Amino acid sequence: MSQSADASIEKPPGQPGLGTGGFRLSAEKLAPWGPVILVILGVIVFSLLKPETFGTVGNFRAIASEQAILAIAALGVTIPIICGQFDLSVAANISAVSVLTAGLMSFSSVPWELALVAGIAAGLLIGLVNGLLVAYAGVHSFIATLATSTILFGFTLWYGKGEIIFEGVSPEFASLARTKLAGFQLPALYLLLVGVALWFVLKLTPFGRYLYAIGGNRAAAEVAGVNVRRHIMYSLMASGGLVALAGVILTSRTASAQSTAGDTFLLPAFAAAFIGASTLRRGEFHVVGTIVGVYLVAVLVSGAFAMGAQNYVSPLITGVALIVAVVGSGALSRS
């Protein structure tokens, strides 16, 4: 066939490509929506396969309520990640705050309102120590928060005496997480309030814009006049405070505390944050994405359990989700 004949069958300029080129274009547009699509598909598939256990209103309400505490902790983790820092003290923070809050009520007969405030204040203090070590002492966030975790673990074992604390925990305090509103336990409402507030701060305030600027290019942010050290410190304080809030709500929900209360939160919180970075926006950590990440893993785990899977499936799914999310967010940030 002649060259002119070949040219005659080429697609006209401006028309959308077909075949592999068109698929790549569609895949590129759909990729940020992947986690959202997976949540929807997971709900549909598991509801069809197990309508009597998974596909019920009660189960969906339970997932929303039970995962709210993890989602609040994951939002806390997301804040320092935005500016390039990592808070590995999540699990130890939750455990320490939980034991402190319950212990104040149980060991010292402190009113539950004061114990609650003390728990959140302790989380802010933990975040402040992390922030000072990272921002002003120059310690890498991995090392600083890992060291803090070790210290907190020692405190938790000492103060909690290695026991489960439940005697003396106020019923009024327990009702803060056990009370239902429209069929949902209150932690779901707390997550909504925290999510909206944090979205506003990160999206519409100078503080949020500065955090993204630091994460994007620290040197450029410094040249532009941003107080990088102070904002890094604030980000870790905010992380400590939100994680402590998750610890307090967890204590309220179980009406008890133990030294290992937060052990299951670290990996899922980071998995949710990194899944969020591959959701809706290209390689950007944000509130909506993190919440989607939490509930994506929750739907997959709940569906697997409904199908008869054993307990070991939960960490497997979380670990795989974290690897896929890190690879996906890196690919999107480079595209």
Q: Quick summary of this structure?
A:
Helix content is 74%, strand content 1%. It contains 16 helices and 2 strands.
Please tell me about this protein's structure.
With 335 residues, the protein is mainly α. 74% of the residues lie in helices and 1% in strands. It has helices at residues 3-8, 19-30, 34-49, 57-66, 68-82, 90-108, 112-136, 141-160, 171-178, 186-204, 206-216, 218-223, 228-254, 266-276, 287-306, 313-334; strands spanning 180-181, 184-185. Strands 1-2 form a two-stranded antiparallel ribbon. Helix 5 packs antiparallel against helix 13 and helix 14 packs across helix 15 (287-306). The longest helix has 27 residues, at 228-254. The protein is globular, with a radius of gyration of 23 Å.
Name the features.
mainly alpha, 2 strands, 335 residues, globular, two-stranded antiparallel ribbon
